[in-house]
Amino acid sequence: MKIGLLPLYLKLYDDACPFMRPRIEAFRETIAGRLAGLGFGVAAAPVCTLKAEFAEAVAMIEGSGAAAIVTLHLSYSPSLECIDALAATRLPLLVFDTTESYEFGASVNADEIMYNHGIHGVQDMCNLLIRRGKSFKVFAGHYERSDALRRIADYCRGLEMAAAFRGMRVGLVGKPFDGMGDFAVPFDELKEKFGIEVIGYDFDAAAERIAAVTAEEIESERRADAGAFDWDDSVTGELYERSARVCIAVRQWMRERSLSALTVNFLAAQKDSPGLPIMPFTECGKAMARGAGYAGEGDVLTAALCGAVLRAFPETTFTEMFCPDWRGGSVFMSHMGEYNYNIGAGRPRLTEKDFPYTTAENPAVAYGTYMPGKATLVNLAPRGGGAYALIAAHGEILEIRGENRLSESVSGWFKPDAPLAEFLEKYSLAGGTHHSALSYAASSEAAPAFAAFAEAMGFEYIEI
Question: Does the pTM exceed 0.85?
Answer without folding.
Answer: yes
